Input
Amino acid sequence: MFKPHTESPMHKTDTIDYVVVMSGTIDLDTQDGRTATLSEGDCLVQRATLHRWANRSDELCTIAVTCISTSADPDADTNIQLG
Output
């Protein structure tokens, strides 16, 4: 859960992450300066990307995340798929 007006530090994992927004709205900031705003019901799959989660709203946001181990190089330049 992300409280209103909070954010994580920029970070990168060596996993494939499946994310579903259960309630609220959250921004995903990437190292290249892009921001994707996700709302309730939106899904995201990412792999070894440098990113930050930011709840810039006045409401609580809950996300469900499943991380699957991979042998991916965490320093590799990879893409984010939104859908």
